[in-house]
Amino acid sequence: MSLKKILMALVAALPMALPVHANDRYQNRPPVMVSPDLSAPWVLQLGGVPTTQARQQRPRAGARPLFPQAQQAGRQLRPVYRNQVRQQIAQPAPVGQRRIASQRRGLFSQQPPVQQVVARPARPAKPQIEPKFLPQMVQYDTKHKPGTVVIDTRERFLYLVMENGSAKRYGVGVGKPGFEWAGTHKVTAKKEWPDWRPPQEMIAREAEKGHFLPAHMPGGPENPLGARALYLGSTLYRIHGTNAPWSIGSGVSSGCIRMRNEDVIDLYDRVPKGASVIVI
To answer: How far is the C-alpha of 259 from the C-alpha of 275, rounded, in Å?
Structure first.
């Protein structure tokens, strides 16, 4: 065989060796066959409800079926009605399915940016009173008779003299530097939950510091004089309670002797009007 004939044979066989184009392959497409079984799961899932729920629902009277030709060889099929499909679509999914769907949406949906929470600065803890300033019975040798009150402003203790060389000792707060004083007075008055009327000198002095005091404050837990007050002679000084018990043992007042509320109540019940008070 000559070379020319061989080349011609190869050229003729080349189209048969090449792959057939897709349009040529499906030029005559086969018909699409749809199953007439309307109770199949894929048909019932169009309504968004399980098969068992779809079979339990009954259409209303006079409703027109979507597929009147709902028959299969050998058996009668249940038709699907328009109102039934609407009810199935409108009916919410069970809680478990909604939870799973929301979790799936949360996995693939864009999460909102996390906002940084600015923590509020914590308030500084108020110091606790030192144990030595709590009330206690102590030995106290003195020439003063029982019932006398002796206040040691340097040690920040108040002694209620008792019999047999003993005394009940309380911790107190005293005047700050520049407001110390000493002397002997009598208890001229006693008041429960006293009102507070700061003197004009104190109001003017605190106003210069930016602290504006009221001219009058009724008695109560917020009152600086606390639960009880024992007035000393004709002075402006008092032995009184406080709404700042952590200040006991310090020099913080304008000359008054302050005690814890529970301590001044105890002293109030023990000390009668007319008792002597000695401040050293």
So the answer is: 18
Range scoring the smallest mean pLDDT among 40-49, 94-103, 271-280: 94-103
Which burial class, exposed, middle or buried, applies to 211 when counting CB atoms under 10 A from its CB (0-12, 13-18, 19+)?
A: exposed
Catalytic residue among 185, 211, 216, 256: 256
Task: State pLDDT tens for residues 152-196.
Answer: 999 999 999 999 999 999 999 999 999 999 999 999 999 999 999
Give the CA distances from residue 75 to residues 36, 42, 59, 139, in Å, rounded to whole numbers and listed in that order. 12, 19, 20, 111
**21 is known as an active-site residue:** no
Sequence-separated (6 or more) residues with CB below 8 Å from residue 119:
none
240 a catalytic residue: yes
User: Cβ atoms within 10 A of the Cβ of 57, count?
Assistant: 14
Among residues 21, 144, 185, 240, which one is catalytic?
A: 240
CB 165 within 8 A of CB 243: no
